[in-house]
Amino acid sequence: MPLFPSDPKTNLLPYDGIVNDYGFILSPLEADNFFEAILSETAWKSDEAVIFGKHIITKRKVAWYGDGEYIYHYSGTRKHSLPWTNSLLALKDLVEKKMDLTFNSCLLNLYHSGEEGMAWHADDEKSLGKNTTIASVSLGAERKFSFRHKKTRETVSLVLAHGSLLVMKGDTQSNWQHCLPKSAKIKHPRINLTFRRFLEDT
Ligand SMILES: O=C(O)CCC(=O)C(=O)O
Ligand SMILES: [Fe+2]
C-alpha cells in the first residue's frame, strides 16, 4: 500500500496534459480474481507491427475487445475487436461508475515478466480523436510507468499496482509519450487494460 492515498483530483503532469491516479479500485482478492479470469479467458495474441519497414512480432501478448466489430489501424497492421467477455464487462462497468464516463473498447496487454515492456509512444491515433480519455487498469506484478514530454523531455514516473486505475486525459497524448520500462528483477506477469473511446468511421 502507498504511504499516502492517491487523490484522483491531483494532476501528476506539471503541464500540457492531465494524468490522474485513482489508486486501488479493487480489493486484493477482487484483483486476484480478475487477474486469473482475464488471463485465462482472453484471446491473447502476439502483437505485430511494421516499424521502419521491418515486420516485428512481440513476446508481449495483446487483445482487443469492443462494443462493435471495430477495425483498428495502427503501426501498419489491422486489428478486429472481439465481443466483450463477462469479466471485461464487469471491470468496464466498475471503471465507468468511478469515472462517470463510458468506454466502447479495451486494449489488453500481457507482459509475462519484467523482460517485456512497452517502448515510448503516445496513443494519438486518429481513431481515438483529440483529447481522448484512456482508463488504464493494472493487474499482477507492480511495474514502473513513465511519461516524457515531447518537447521539454521532462519525465514523470509512478508505480502501477495490482488493482489500480490510472487515467490519461486532456491533451496528454498530444504532448507526452509514455512507456513501461523493462526490469530484469520482475519475474511475475502483469496484465494491463486500457479502456478507450474508439471513434467509428475513422
Ligand atoms: O501496460 C501499460 O501500462 C501501458 C500500455 C499502453 O501504454 C498501451 O497499451 O497503449
Ligand atoms: Fe499507451
Automatic annotation (TrEMBL):
Domain Fe2OG dioxygenase residues, every copy: 102-199
Q: Pfam families, alphabetically?
A: 2OG-FeII_Oxy_2
Annotated GO biological process: DNA alkylation repair
Q: What molecular function terms (GO) are annotated for this protein?
A: catalytic activity, acting on DNA; demethylase activity; dioxygenase activity; hydrolase activity; metal ion binding; oxidoreductase activity, acting on paired donors, with incorporation or reduction of molecular oxygen
> Which cofactor(s) are needed, names only?
Fe(2+)
Q: Which domain of life is it from?
A: Bacteria
Kindly give the Gene3D superfamilies that the UniProt entry links to this protein. Answer: Alpha-ketoglutarate-dependent dioxygenase AlkB-like (2.60.120.590)
List UniProt keywords, sorted A-Z. Dioxygenase, DNA damage, DNA repair, Iron, Magnesium, Metal-binding, Oxidoreductase
Q: Supply the PANTHER family for this chain.
A: ALPHA-KETOGLUTARATE-DEPENDENT DIOXYGENASE ALKB HOMOLOG 3 (PTHR31212:SF4)
Q: What is this protein called?
A: Alpha-ketoglutarate-dependent dioxygenase AlkB
Q: What is the lineage of its organism?
A: Bacteria, Pseudomonadati, Spirochaetota, Spirochaetia, Leptospirales
